[in-house]
Amino acid sequence: MSGLSPESIQGLRSPLARVAEVHEALGSTQERARELARAGTPHGTLVVAEVQTGGRGRLGRPWGSPKGGLWMSLVLRPWFDASLASRITQTAAVGVAKALWEIGVEARIKWPNDLLAGGKKICGILAESSAENTTGPAKQRRLDYAILGVGMNANLDPAELGVPDREVTTIRSELGRAVNLLDLLRALLSNLEAELGRIGDFGAVLEEWRSLNCTLGEKVRVRRFGHTIEGRALDLSQEGALLLATQCGTVEVLEGDIEHLRHGGEG
Ligand code: BTN
User: Which Gene3D superfamilies does the UniProt entry name for this protein (predicted)?
Assistant: First the structure.
């Protein structure tokens, strides 16, 4: 598969990909990684598929995954407790953004964790975690595993992604040439390893997030719990929530989808 095989991936010597599975087709790498995690696979297991027939994104949305993309999920067994799980997505977004810059794509992070190039979505991140089955506050619960999914629109035409209602782009259309998927994976794994390795110093991660983002300063619309809020994105809280200046004062948004609004329209 485009230079990707368990052997070539293990040749990268990444601690995040000590175990690697490469499939021609899978329902979802996320589901396969979860299956492996439940069966006890170690930290640093990577599942890649050339095609996903049931790829999914945040909020249960379908994620078009035809041939040419890099569809992957990592099994992580984090050392930190469950209360820090929400940091994974933004920390990963910083790593993925840096990897894209390394291969020549000037990517920006749209809160919380979409990667855009030229204002169009080029990559999505899906982090899901499972805490140990003990009672008590999250602070005292260890994370059993986290599954970090990365959906990278790599060597395809945007039209192949089948999302006519959303503005999407691909690495190939940004660079004007195909990218070697093993080189892309190398850049992703090394940047993810570096960023996830300093998740305990989340203030430093968020500083980088700020320098790579395209949301702060923008007028945005947030849809949550059936209603919408509009405001200007001011900053992030210490744990990465979005602080919005609205007509009713500052509102902290913990999760959800945002739209960037430009000139009174949608952007
Ligand atoms: C989003 O932006 O909504 C997140 C998209 C995440 C897609 C990736 S592709 C690899 C992995 N497998 C899945 O089914 N989803 C993630």
Answer: 2.30.30.100, Bira Bifunctional Protein, Domain 2
